[in-house]
Design a protein that fits this description.
two-stranded antiparallel ribbon, Perforin-1_pore-forming, 24% helix, 210 residues, signal, MACPF, C2_domain_sf, wide pore channel activity
Length: 210
């Protein structure tokens, strides 16, 4: 009898200590540490624990219905496009499609954009020796070394002057022609650029950029 009373007292003492520490939560609630990762669907605060939380079943249904509009990529496989056609390597349509795709890609590849990317830089810039796919510009008051404007609203204005046709402005002979471009920015002085004069020619060719 004395042993039973002592055991009951220890049991009640343990129960009281556990209640103070856990706040009357069950064992499963106290030790329910887990990590859940949700991929796809309308992910929000309610979607972080859709399967194991005691929340409303409608939360899982709402997330499931949103997968069609916002799918999550769990697994993907890349294969050549001509593999979509049935048949093996000997299938004539497969071989023909492969040849056509190769010809299309070669014909539409941009020249100079290989591993050195030397064809991507525009006028006034050059490939970075350390990063060939990046362009560098000589630093000026307008742009920095990364070809970015130094101020808000700043940019580079280029005027390409091509050929002139059937110009007339001289009774004695051909036209003495030149092209002048003016640009008045919102602030600062007016910018003026002029080509060289092409004398005695009604169809002058300049081919310059101002």
């Amino acid at each position: 009898m004395g042993t039973k009373v002592q055991a009951d007292a220890k049991y009640h003492a343990c129960q009281e200590a556990r209640a103070k520490l856990s706040g009357q939560r069950s064992f499963s609630q106290e030790y329910s540490d887990r990590q859940v990762e949700v991929t796809g669907g309308p992910i929000g605060a309610a979607a972080s624990d859709l399967l194991l939380s005691p929340g409303q079943p409608s939360d899982f249904g709402a997330w499931l219905s949103g997968l069609a509009a916002q799918p999550g990529v769990i697994y993907h496989l890349l294969e050549p496009l001509h593999h979509l056609l049935p048949g093996g390597r000997a299938e004539p349509r497969r071989c023909q499609l492969r040849r056509e795709l190769e010809a299309y890609l070669r014909g539409h590849a941009r020249a100079g954009e290989g591993r050195n990317c030397s064809g991507r830089c525009g006028r006034g810039s050059a490939p970075d020796p350390r990063q060939p796919c990046s362009c560098r510009c000589p630093p000026t008051q307008e742009v920095d070394g990364l070809c970015c404007p130094r101020g808000k609203g700043w940019g580079l204005l280029e005027v390409t002057v091509g050929p002139g046709r059937d110009l007339w402005g001289d009774y004695a002979g051909g036209t003495d022609a030149y092209v002048r471009a003016r640009y008045r920015p919102a602030t600062g002085p007016e910018l003026v650029a002029t080509t060289a004069v092409v004398p005695n020619n009604n169809n002058p060719e300049w081919g310059v950029t101002l």
